[in-house]
From TrEMBL:
GO cellular component: plasma membrane; proton-transporting ATP synthase complex
GO molecular function, one term: ATP binding
Biological process, per Gene Ontology: proton motive force-driven plasma membrane ATP synthesis
Protein name (database record): ATP synthase gamma chain
Membrane topology category: Peripheral membrane protein
Self-association state and partner proteins as the record states: F-type ATPases have 2 components, CF(1) - the catalytic core - and CF(0) - the membrane proton channel. CF(1) has five subunits: alpha(3), beta(3), gamma(1), delta(1), epsilon(1). CF(0) has three main subunits: a, b and c.
Lineage of the species this protein comes from: Bacteria, Pseudomonadati, Pseudomonadota, Alphaproteobacteria, Acetobacterales
Similarity comment text for this entry: Belongs to the ATPase gamma chain family.
Main function: Produces ATP from ADP in the presence of a proton gradient across the membrane. The gamma chain is believed to be important in regulating ATPase activity and the flow of protons through the CF(0) complex.
Amino acid sequence: MASLKELRARIGSVKSTKKITSAMKMVAAAKLRRAQQKAEAAGPYAVAMRRMLGELAAAMAGQDGAPKLLAGTGGDRVHLLVPITSDRGLAGGFNSNINRRTRQTVRKLQAEGKIVKLLPVGRKGADYLAREFSDLIVDRVIGVGGKELPFSAASDLGDKIVSLLDAGEFDVCTVIYNQFRNVMSQVPTPLQLIPLGLDDAAAAEPDANAAQYEFEPDEQTLLERLLPRNLQVQLYAAMLESAAGEQGARMTAMDNATRNAGKAIDRLSQTYNRTRQANITNELIEIMSGAQAV
C-alpha cells in the first residue's frame, strides 16, 4: 500500500494535470468559435464554385483540349492522396481517423492495381505515413496549422499539386479531411479534386436545370485563371473544416481528460483518507497496548 506521502504527491500531480487540461479545453473552445465561423463562411462559396465547374466539366466531357484541372489526364492509373491532419496531438481520434482512412484508401487502390502517391498535410499525418508508406510520399506540408490559417497555405499547396500534375506525376487527386459536423463529430471525408466532377447534389438535378455558360473574354483565358483558383478554394475550405474539427476534437478530449482527472482525485482522496484512518487506528492500538502492559 502506498504511503501517505506518496498519495499526497499523486493527488497534487493529478490536480496539476487537471488544471492544464481545463485550460486547454477553454483555449480550444475559444479557437473553435473562430475556426467554425471561418469554415461556415467559406463553405457556401466553395460549394457554389465546385458546382459550377462540375457542371462545366460534365458539359466538356470527352472534348479535346479540356484543361487537365477540369477533365484530368484521361486516365486513373496513378492516384495522389492529400490527407489533412494537425501538427499537434491531444485531439482524441482526430488524426488517427484520417490516418486510418488514408491507409484503407491506399490498400484499396493498390488492390485494384493502382499506383498511389501521398502528399500529407500536417505533422501527425506525415509522421504516421512515413512509417507506413515512406516510399509513397512525394512531398509534405507542415506548419500550416498555427493560430491563423492564411489562404496562402492553400495557395501554396495548390501550386504543388498543379506542378505535379503538369509533370505527369498523377492522374487523379483526392483530398481526405475531417468534415466538421459538430463538437462531438468530425467525419473523415474524401473529396476528388482532379478531375473535377459533379457532386452528389448537382448530379441529382435534372438535366433541364443545368446552367448554360457564356465565356467572356474567352473560354481558355477564363478557365486558366478560374481552375487554379477553384483548386485553392476547395483546399482552403477543406483545411478550414479540418481546423474547426481539430479544435472541436481537442475541446472534447480535454473535457474528458478533466472529468477523468476529477474522478482520479476523488479515488485517491478516498484512499488517502482510509490509509490515514488506518494509521491512526494502528497508533491508538499501539498506545492502548502499551498502557495495558504498564
